[in-house]
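fyi for ur records
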Amino acid sequence: MVSASLRFHWQTADRPIVALAPMAGVTDGSYRRFLKKLAPGIILYSEFLSSDAIKYGAKRVLQELEFDPVLEQPFIVQIFGKKPEHFLEAAKVIEQAGADGIDINMGCPAARVVSSCHGSALIKNPELAAELVAATKKAVSLPVSVKTRLGWDSAEQLIPFCRKLVEAGADALAIHGRTFAQQYSGAADWAPIYELKKNISVPVIGNGDIFTAADAVAKLGNLDGVMAGRGTIGNPWLLADISQAFRSITEMGNLSMTQPTVERLSFVEKIPFILEHCALAVQVKGEKRGMLEMRRHLACYVKGMDGAKDLRARLVRVDTIEDVRKILAPFAADRL
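which gave:
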């Protein structure tokens, strides 16, 4: 299989880059296609996948490599692990699947991941981290990027750590503005990311606490782009808002604007999109699994609404799209 966008490379991607952060249990094919329809210019990432499982041909993981080369591109597959020989083999499988790039997860702070010396644990082992990048680059012609954090418990090692990754062949870096020790607590600190960009030769993307287009514009600074993840859950229009804001401000030649004006949708206007998201989930994973995984999204779609608690309690028990239609019908009977 040949990717529809073999020419994709981080160095030539349109600036500012707007990317969907890889999220376990969230960024599956249905979510990627849904967001790409809303914001065609964004870069998509898979859920993070085990290099070991890909190497050994685990059926469930190989299914996660399936994507639509027309509707989902550029498509970056994120992998995690600690064995260079497995990264080498997994990278070949990913290239054969037609992906546009490979990203290595060196930032996940989950205890089960870190305890296996994966994810953020690699920050404490820069030699192995560099070896994983080198093995992946050796295996394929695809661009290889890394997503990581500011550091283990401080940002002091960010620049030397990332320099090792670039020396090993990393084509781009995405940095989450917290250390491993912070997990997801406190405010993301982008200052060390700006400093990294001054000291590194590859594209650098910032990640952390992007919940509005104004956040993205205010935080962009000297970086090549931004990446949003949790902020898109319940608000899949976020990346479209960011793209529109960047486009408008770039045309005016003023990237310092911090209050871009983006048109918002009412809940009633969102309902057709919510149902479309459900339909895509069912199309990709079947109704039983698709609707089970949609429950998280549905609960977030109603956040902040009057009566959200009761509505959320009903939506997290749906089994079919028809269940969703019935629950939402009172809000927009003429639209369903």
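The first strand starts at residue 17 and ends at 20. thats all i got for now
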